[in-house]
Amino acid sequence: MFHPLLQFLCLLGNGMAPTSKVRVQLFVCCLVLFVLAQGYILRRLSVEPKALTTSSSHDDVIPHLRGGLAAVTSPVSELNDEAIENQARDATARPSEGPWHVGVPSISQAATSSPLLNEHDQVETTPTTPTSSQTSSPTSRNPTAAVGAFVPHPDVGVDDVQRSRMLAIRSAMQHAWSGYETHAFGADEVGPVSGDRKQDVWGGLGVTLVDALDTLYIMGMARARDWVEMELDFTHLGKDGDNISVFEITIRELGGLLSAYDLSGDDAFRARAVELGDLLLPAFANGIFYTQFNVFKQTKTMNGWTGYRGLLADLGTLQLELRRLSDVSGNPIYAERGDAFYDIVQREGSYEHTGLFPVHFEVESGTFSMTNSLITIGALGDSFYEYLLKVWLYSGQRQSDAFLRDLYNDAVQGIETSLLRYSKPDDAYYLQEVTIPGFSGQPKQDHLLCFVPGMLALGTLTDTDPARVVKHLDMAKKLMKTCYNLYSRQPTGLAPDIVMFPGFAVADSRYRLRPETVESLMYLYRVTKDPMYQDWGWQIFKAIEKHAKTSFGYGAVLNVDSAAASHVEDKMESFFLAETLKYHYLLQSAPSFVPLDKFVFNTEAHPFRTLASCYPVDWVDLTGITGLTVNSKAQRRAVELSMQFPNRLKIPLVLVLVALFVGLQIYIVSRLDISPTADPSFDAFSRPRRWKPSPSPIVVTEKSAAANFAPRQKFIPLPHEGVDETQIARQDAIRRAMQHAWSGYETRAFGADEVAPVSGERRQNVWGGIGVTLVDSLDTLYIMGMHDEFQRARDWVANELEFSHLGRDGDTISVFEVIIRELGGLLSAYDLSQDNLFKAKAVELADLLLPAYEDQVFYTKLNVFTKRKSMNHWTHYRAFLADVGTLQLEMRYLSDITGNSEYAEKGDAFYDVIQREGSYEHTGLFPVHFEPDSGTFSRSDTFVTIGALGDSFYEYLLKVWLYSGKRADDLFLRQLYDDAVAGMETHLYVHSVPDDAYFLQELRIPQMEGTPQQDHLLCFVPGMLALGSVGETNATKAAVHLDMATKLMHTCVSYYTRQPTGLAPDLMHFPGFDVLNSIYKLRPETVESLMYMYRVTHDPIYREWGWAMFEAIEQHAKTTFGYGAVRNVHNLTDAFIEDKMESFFLAETLKYHYLLQSAPSFV
Predict the structure, then answer these.
(1) pLDDT digits (tens, 9 = 90+) for 1125-1163
(2) Is 878 noted as a catalytic residue in this protein?
(3) Residues 183 and 313 grouped into a single domain
(4) Which of 85, 139, 837, 988 has the maximum number of C-beta atoms within 10 A of its C-beta?
(5) Does the predicted TM-score (pTM) go above 0.85?
(6) Residue 516 bears catalytic tag
């Protein structure tokens, strides 16, 4: 509250030419009086410091599967420069209407006309005060002068080669825009393959249209302005219960409107920008803008998949847009709220003075996470650093914003010191990401990070330190080469989304039409004038034309590392039109076109006029204080003279004003009747946590193990006994499917972790390079009587399965996945075959995993070689309930067959935690987030679900109890299971009346608010309930549980029957069975439950449902080398197969189909 007064005092004290002595005296006087006054106030109020707590949380992320389409679009002919240029000339031969009917010449017309503007007068401005927005109250911040229209002359100053390239890029924009305009005009997106209208991706705000406005204007195209004025509507936002992404809406929609205004001078865009800005303001609290916001309800939160934490990039990438909005509207509130995060940044400082900041921000405490976090200039952190520079440039490099340039310089120094690495085998420089604390580096780089070379180049244009300019530009060039090599090293000429070093190993093979590399090429060319960067960009553009072009636009390309397997996804992000094509166009244009000294581009490539291009920078600072509009040097001088005071009056005047202010504060406080208070809860809250004693762990001795697991006959599969000819025929069909999947794996990738079902590619190391598909399939091969295949697999395990390489490459393994797939597969193979080879390998593997145990849990990530362990970084280094609660069955069985109790003891230690901590609010249900450091469950900013992240914990409560023989020592597990089912029924079990469907919602805590969605993973629940009813002595409870199982089973089957492909999407929303994630990942949960339901009820309907599902898999998921995940299951014409076959398809899905059609006595 003191800032405006202090600013005014400084102005009075300084005049226009303050001496250093006056400044020091002024500062000392103000500081002493202020400190004395505040001390007195604090004593009167009995205020004492209060500890702030931070609570970690982690991502609720479903990892993206990589892979491909079987066939998506018609073949693209081989393209060369001449073909593309001819195509472009044909496309531009038609008369072109200027943007929004203002008569701007097209590029072809401009080529023959005299230029209206040159490098120094490209932007025309009219220094008149604009009409105030209805939503803007009179303020001390003066709106910028009304802007005149920017007149694009893109091909002035370019040669014929660049001109022809620009024509081709413009033609690409016309093609993308045509697909959108004809099939989805006014919607958020168009499906580039299907032509589907995707109305609400970002809130139903016409995001592609608004995001593309400035690209259309710059290229001299289109008719979008009238839609913005007449049709763009914000009143529906939030009424459907959905949130909007404040981050994405700000950079895409608000940025697009502001840029359109800056280029055209059309007040329609400014008015809509102010309207949208006002709607976003309530998302601000605690010095930040919350990322998820319901405009109608005025509720705000952080993204659930971030663990309800703020992300550095989200919080630090709004300031440019909000400053520009304040400057064009005259209302300072937007800038003040955006800049509030910069106050936090300065207060908190960088991590260990590195100049770099953790990507995680604790909303409640207002601090950055200093543990269990990471530092990266890529995804989650990227544009924060970009905006440090660009906000400073936008401000006209004024002194009051010099701290931003300092933060930027410090960050670049930190990048060079802590993140820049050289991969000698590749002769490539890259920027690693590091985990903190410990600064452990990950040798990876994502495509998003490729904005950095451009940022560094842009920063050199205004740097006054020659040595630093040389160093930054050298770093930019080295990183630029690496980013270009992401493209040039691939057979498609397109870049994967993530690579690992050394080797440029592809970790995510999708090209998502991203702009970062061409953005940097544009900056590097404009700074260095080296035409090599233009040529590199042209090669990238040709690859886009060849591989990404579709009937209705351009789509993301899957499998860029395989020309034969690459295909196009039905997704065209708005940033392809807003950024990628714009930067390609600007790269081939002259540097004087949309010049960098007059415009600054936001992170969505929307150009904003800098304040220096609107009016002189010294004028900006002055009018910001006085609220006056100064349009001439004479007026400015008059203001300066009116504000000067004789030197002899400066200090007395300042002291009098400060004394009056402080005296007023003291008088007010002295009149208050305030007595000291103490918060009794504070002492208890800050007291060290007292741990309850843990119950004694299970003890398994050699003697008991021998007694319970004496050598016995191996299991002899007789699957055809007790079934009729229909079931036999079905079993044989399912067995043939297994043979087909196994044949693809055995012939193309035997001993590797996976085979790619579309391309036949060998994927050696997905889970550690330990033959996961082979080991995971062992018991399926055995049960189906595939004796020869099983024997060959057994020989590989005996002679080739090797664990000694694990961790030597620096990689970690997923302890959870390796235990359930690899260790579980070995143990099951031993149990069925009684072959001691499998037991020996299981023991060898388990002994390697034991160091992952600490603090009563198994950590999810382990480097077997170094013994270093952690939780997944994408979980914010927290544990998930499903991960730490789904090891006990394997560990107990291993102890029982070896006589070594250590495995069971360490697995069961988490059950000690469960009993000590208890369920959330005695509901029987547990939060999905677990804090390893404190050994407690998160009690806020988390959620309860029986689906992903929580699922198998509840399953194992029942199954471990059943495995143990229902012994009294384990009765607590059955009680926990029964309590959990009661909690599901009370808090999660919901009836969607319009659908007549029962589902299990997710529950946000502590609010206890439900989210009406259910994922496919949750479809194991009907089977679990059916299994739990077997042997239940309470008939009422058994009936209730079986009734729940039946109703939930109907819902899960409806996932399949309601889709035209007969396959289930991965995530549904109620009411309406709305598809939220349209991929079928070959998951087993529904057929698993059908198997249990049939075996418990003997109702043949469950077999019929399962058979219909199997036929759909055969029809839509079968490929040359196996079976692949199917995308877009809700659209027959749009469905295609991804190049991904998880090992669980052979281990679970096909096994459960086979057992469903067999007699209950089989296994």
Answers:
(1) 999 999 988 899 999 999 999 999 999 999 999 999 999
(2) no
(3) yes
(4) 988
(5) no
(6) yes
